[in-house]
Structure to design on (889 residues):
């Protein structure tokens, strides 16, 4: 069977009392069997991974095909190993048994591949799989041994036989475990797989040659059964090895190519699955349509966008349901055919319920095999809420009464402005603020931009700007950095504060005038008390001195100086609106007409005086003497402003001042007024002078040519009459004073002289005198006593009440100061009226000291301080002889 020269060792087997045939091995075939075992192991490892990766029917195919190739390899290793063993007698093989041993090898390989192809593999599962695999390999080996036909009996050493079976199981365990470990290797020729195959390939022949060592052959005289015996020559051995190696190689190559094909298939399937998941789970709507609008495919998000419950429902809907106008579809497809693809376009379609839906989309035309576009693929995002928000912003943007502008930060180019902006939109869009000359100073914009870059926003920054007409205005700028189309821009809101700042200036001026007025009034009131004493006592002394007494002239000078001082205090009181007025309904035109002749004498011949009086002029309620003084003071002021002559114009008219005018001229109230305007063509005034002209003692005239009380008197009289005075002037363009006095609906009453007045003083009447200033009280008591009256003195209101309650006689008249500590004169008169209702009242005051509403009550009688003996006695006599009851409440 084998060339003895190729044998390296002989095996002499001795069995007691029997002759045992000696055998030997051809180590070339032994090496070949080991090589086949390694190849078979490598194929097993490679096929195990392929079986694991296979699915469905392909898994069964690879399991059976892999098991056949692996079984053939094991079987081939076994028979080449047997052929490597030679005996001194001829050996044939029974081919049915050979086929049976091959089937045993394939079955064992099937078990092995099935076990290792499971997804989970553990030691116990490997043990469970190694038992049938090991016994199968052992069965294959010993079935192959039984296929030998020779003139000898084969006996087995029990120990070595069991050892060979155990080795088969252990080797199967190792093979299964190594196969499991390396089955995930993607590269077929990895070093780990080669190393594992080498270990397995070297271990499997160990089991085979252990089994061969367990066998001993003893010659017999019987002829073997050669009915199915075949002889395997050296050429047959080479053929078996070659076929086995080819089969194993083809199996590995097939696995390699199939793995690559399967990997590509799996990759395509995975990509398709990922695309499908992306398609279905996308938050954006994805839709594929034909060019006529029929839907081929759409995802659930697209169905939700159009208000459908499912994609199938959307696909079944008519194309016209999605467009408000069918022509919109045709126009869109025409543009898409021309452009091939569109990105970030917006259009409005219709939902299932008929409501509009705004979409941001990207579309692409897919060409067919003939190169013609056949399918439109679109990705859609619902931007309806964004469009609503934009519309809301646009409405708020344009409805905002404050000017709003959006422009680039870099160059100040306007992108958008609202309807309240200083220019129309078409006049500014695309132009820069520099081109429009918006900024009064370009440095202001640079400063604002610097703050924006540093802080991101600014709030209420004061800026100066120019209007379209070139007017200079002031505003508070609040700006924010925003991004428009990827460009840094600033959105600015302007609040024009020009009028507000003017109003604040006017308010500060009014408050200043009020404070000065309060101070002036307080000084004048105290001064009037002193002047009352000076003038009164000087008059008393003058009466008692003989005509030729040199002191009489000095007393006259004292009294004259007192009256001059009283005139100054009256002007201060007029400014402070605390003088005692005697208001009545007046015709302003008549007043102007009455003083016009005197005015001509005041202004001189080089000044022209013109009047423009409204014949339908309404009536005012004021003190006639004070209004005449206002006109005279303004005319004198105008005359002094025209040293080279000029023209003075006096105008009267009815005016209705609205809310807007009142808002811009606080504290002016809206309503019907009589306007008295006095204008001149003089030198005019600057703003600084205008801010101070109504202050007491402020004058622009030379020293000695003015007291500075003329215009302050005008201001006080007008304000005390509930009116307002405004001045308008520019240097070189003259000055206009506009006085607004409230119009009254009452008629002018004719004045009739009181015939009941008696020239000689009365006597026997009792007068209750209430005065907190002791010098004035003593003077008044002295003068009244000299006039023949009985005087009851009280230094404060509580004392007066006590006297009124306890005095048993009649008290004919109450003569009381208006301003006293604790209780004013009017409140005192009201209290005493409850005790002595028949008592009449005369009030004395340097100023009123309480609300102006009391001053306009026609039945209240006032005696202004400082007073003379004549004025005091005359007023008292007038009241006592009057037949009308005077109101005291």
């Amino acid at each position: 069977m084998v060339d003895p020269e190729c044998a390296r060792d002989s095996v002499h087997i001795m069995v007691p009392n029997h002759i045992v045939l000696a055998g030997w091995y051809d180590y070339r075939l032994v090496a070949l069997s080991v090589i086949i075992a390694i190849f078979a192991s490598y194929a097993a490892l490679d096929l195990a991974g392929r079986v694991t990766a296979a699915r469905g029917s392909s898994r069964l195919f690879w399991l059976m095909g892999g098991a056949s190739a692996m079984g053939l390899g094991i079987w081939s290793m076994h028979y080449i190993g047997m052929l490597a063993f030679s005996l001194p007698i001829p050996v044939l093989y029974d081919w049915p048994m050979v086929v049976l041993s091959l089937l045993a090898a394939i079955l064992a390989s099937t078990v092995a591949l099935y076990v290792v192809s499971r997804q989970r593999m553990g030691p116990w599962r490997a043990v469970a799989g190694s038992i049938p695999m090991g016994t199968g390999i052992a069965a294959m080996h010993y079935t192959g041994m039984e296929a030998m036909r020779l003139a000898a009996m084969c006996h087995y050493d029990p120990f070595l036989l069991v050892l060979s079976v155990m080795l088969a199981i252990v080797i199967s365990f190792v093979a299964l475990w190594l196969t499991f470990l390396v089955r995930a290797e993607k590269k077929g020729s990895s070093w780990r797989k080669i190393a594992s195959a080498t270990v397995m390939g070297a271990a499997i022949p160990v089991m085979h040659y252990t089994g061969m060592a367990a066998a001993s052959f003893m010659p017999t005289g019987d002829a073997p059964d050669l009915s199915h015996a075949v002889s395997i020559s050296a050429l047959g051995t080479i053929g078996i090895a070659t076929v086995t190696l080819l089969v194993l190689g083809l199996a590995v190559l097939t696995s390699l190519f199939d793995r690559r094909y399967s990997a590509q298939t799996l990759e395509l399937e995975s990509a398709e699955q990922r695309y499908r998941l992306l398609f279905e789970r996308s938050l954006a709507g994805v839709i594929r349509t034909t060019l006529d609008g029929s839907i081929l495919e759409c995802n659930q998000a697209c169905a939700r966008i159009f208000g459908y419950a499912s994609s199938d429902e959307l696909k079944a809907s008519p194309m016209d349901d999605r467009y408000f106008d069918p022509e919109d579809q045709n126009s869109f497809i025409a543009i898409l055919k021309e452009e091939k693809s569109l990105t970030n376009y917006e259009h409005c379609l219709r939902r299932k319920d008929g409501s509009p839906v705004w979409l941001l989309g990207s579309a692409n035309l897919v060409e067919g095999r003939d190169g013609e576009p056949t399918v439109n693929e679109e990705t859609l995002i619902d931007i309806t809420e964004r469009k609503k928000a934009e519309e809301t912003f646009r409405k708020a943007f344009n409805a905002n009464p404050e000017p709003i502008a959006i422009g680039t930060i870099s160059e100040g180019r306007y992108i958008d402005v609202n309807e309240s902006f200083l220019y129309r939109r078409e006049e500014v869009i695309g132009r820069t603020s520099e081109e429009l000359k918006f900024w009064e100073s370009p440095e202001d914009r640079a400063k604002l931009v610097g703050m924006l870059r540093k802080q991101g926003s600014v709030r209420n920054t004061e800026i100066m700007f120019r209007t379209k007409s070139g007017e200079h205005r002031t505003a508070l700028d609040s700006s924010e950095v925003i991004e428009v189309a990827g460009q840094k821009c600033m959105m600015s809101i302007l609040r024009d504060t020009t009028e507000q700042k003017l109003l604040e200036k006017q308010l500060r001026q009014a408050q200043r005038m009020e404070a000065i007025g309060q101070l002036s009034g307080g000084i004048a009131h105290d001064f009037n008390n002193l002047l009352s004493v000076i003038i009164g006592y000087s008059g008393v002394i003058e009466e008692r001195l003989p005509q030729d007494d040199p002191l009489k002239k000095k007393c006259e000078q004292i009294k004259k100086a007192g009256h001059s001082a009283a005139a100054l205090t009256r002007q201060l009181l007029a400014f402070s609106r605390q003088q005692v007025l005697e208001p009545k309904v007046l015709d302003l035109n008549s007043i102007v007409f009455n003083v016009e002749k005197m005015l001509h004498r005041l202004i001189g011949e080089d000044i022209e005086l013109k009047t423009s009086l409204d014949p339908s002029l309404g009536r005012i309620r004021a003190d006639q003497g004070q209004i005449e003084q206002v006109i005279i003071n303004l005319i004198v002021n105008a005359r002094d402003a025209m040293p080279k002559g000029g023209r003075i114009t006096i105008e009267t008219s009815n005016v209705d001042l609205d809310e807007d005018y009142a808002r811009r001229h606080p504290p002016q109230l809206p309503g019907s007024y009589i306007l008295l305007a006095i204008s001149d063509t003089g030198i005019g005034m600057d703003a600084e002078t205008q801010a101070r002209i109504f202050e007491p003692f402020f004058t622009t005239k030379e020293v000695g040519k003015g007291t500075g009380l003329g215009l302050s008197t005008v201001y006080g009289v007008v304000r005390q009459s509930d009116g307002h005075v405004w001045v308008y002037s520019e240097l070189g363009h003259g000055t206009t004073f506009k006085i607004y006095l409230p119009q009254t609906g009452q008629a002018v009453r004719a004045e009739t002289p009181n015939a009941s007045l008696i020239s000689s003083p009365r006597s026997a009447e009792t007068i209750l005198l209430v005065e907190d200033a002791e010098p004035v009280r003593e003077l008044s008591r002295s003068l009244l006593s000299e006039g023949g009256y009985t005087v009851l003195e009280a230094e404060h209101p509580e004392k007066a009440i006590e006297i009124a309650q306890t005095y048993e006689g009649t008290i004919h008249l109450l003569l009381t100061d208006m301003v006293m500590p604790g209780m004013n004169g009017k409140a005192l008169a009201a209290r005493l009226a409850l005790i002595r209702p028949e008592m009449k009242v005369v009030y004395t005051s340097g100023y009123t000291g309480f609300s102006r509403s009391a001053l306009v009550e026609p039945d209240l009688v006032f005696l202004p301080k400082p007073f003379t003996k004549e004025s005091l006695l005359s007023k008292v006599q007038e009241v006592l002889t009057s037949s009308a009851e005077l109101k005291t409440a």
Summary: The radius of gyration is 64 Å.
